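Note on ligand handling. Small-molecule inputs were canonicalized before submission; formal charges were left as drawn, and no protonation-state enumeration was performed. Where a ligand contained multiple stereocentres, the stereochemistry in the source SMILES was retained. For flavin-adenine dinucleotide, this procedure yielded the string shown in the input block below.
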Amino acid sequence: MIDTIVIGAGWSGIVTARELAKAGHSVLILEARNRIGGRARTFTEGMHVPVDLGCSFIHGYKEGNPAREIAKEIGTTTYLLKPTAGLILGKAGILPPSIAARLRSNLAAARASALDISHNSHPAPSTSTPLSDVLFAQDSPLFAESPDRGAAISFARTLEVPFGMTLEKASLRWTGWEDAYAGSDAAPEGGFQPLLEKLVEEAKGNGVQVRTGETVSSIVRTDGGVHVATDTGSGYSARSVVCTIPLGVLKGTASTLFQPSLPARRLETIANTHVGILEKLVLAYPSVWWPEGSAVGSYIFLPSQAATAEDPVTPKAVLDLNTLIVASFAAPTLPKQHPTLLFYLSPTPALQLAQFSPEDVAKGAHEFLVERFGVSSPVPAPIASVMTNWHTDSLAMGATTTPSIIGEGRGPLDFAELGKPVWDGTLGFAGEHTDPNHRGSVAGAVVSGLREAERVAKLLRKLNEG
Ligand SMILES: Cc1cc2nc3c(=O)[nH]c(=O)nc-3n(C[C@H](O)[C@H](O)[C@H](O)COP(=O)(O)OP(=O)(O)OC[C@H]3O[C@@H](n4cnc5c(N)ncnc54)[C@H](O)[C@@H]3O)c2cc1C
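Structure output:
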């Protein structure tokens, strides 16, 4: 009988399998997709260089992120990001440096004030108070010496990109609770998916079996361990299972996937812990045509139109209404510069754009950029484009878990609970959603994989000792 079946070949599953195999255990990975990587997906079609559509940075590279060591062990070169300039664009074009600096420093001060309230106020804020209540309060540092409240609020909405949710949904009480690896960022050469493919090849060399294209459809406790069935009609028995199915997917399947059923409390946590939305839209150009292209690494667009009750009727109208972060790969942030722009889309524009075809979105985004950059000379059309759909991808159902949301009973311990093993330890859980400090990141997936490998190795030793 196999020692451990690992469900899912993303970061967490591969790390779990790799560690268990290194410790001499037999491991089978079952992956539903026909590719390795999960939310690590590197896209090449028509691109100048491979572009990551899921994770793209090892956050906290110099601050202890274990993905750094793994990349080194596997022989993948990583590049620390070089700081490059950023510009903010308002309705009338690029904001003067003094106004841009004011927006940035006010948001930093407002966040620091919210952190202070979240961590130190006594009594602690209610779990139903949203972060937006203090950020947008009348006397918030967000508005200090700033005549334009609308611009300050729109600029604060840049936070909705990494959060994957609106500020009205984020819990004030748990803001900044996590102790995540943060500070420096690095990117692996060639992208994240090839890195994980290399890790899988190494794991195979250590005896790990990998079956792709097999969706696990039931996980059943048996006398000797666990039986796992897949949609191909195959069944596998093992002494233990580590399930790394993303939380967004578990929301739809957890009540029927496991026999016996998961405890009611766990099902409630799965149902009510939030999975966020973050999509990427990439436009590759034949040459750089946007302003200060060789120096500026990111452009923040504030809305040029005020929202109305009606839904926007074109992709360009969606972009006009929202705060957008656009990264430029033409700047020397990474060693290889190329004429590509990448929109990071927070939930509001991402959901609105999802109503249109990818072709229409790319066309609208190009028109938007030409207008907002105010370039009057002819500009080249994109040579290739791609937009992600993580929130409708049936094997992801969202980008990642978000910071804790408002609501009775919600908090960071939800992520610890999602990682607790059941069935006397024979069914474990790993994945970004199972680590309270690093949730939502590569670090969370890696840390949870290391945690589960260590736990399962102990369990197997105990079972061997009889
Ligand atoms: C747009 C975007 C940008 C991001 N940027 C960053 C970043 O820059 N830095 C960072 O640290 N993190 C980033 N992240 C987060 C990071 O990508 C994830 O946290 C991490 O990849 C999750 O790994 P995982 O192993 O938990 O899950 P996954 O990678 O999702 O792996 C789970 C696997 O399970 C498989 N699966 C699902 N259901 C079944 C089933 N029934 N049977 C078999 N297999 C199944 C899936 O196909 C998948 O391969 C980003 C995510 C997104 C979406």
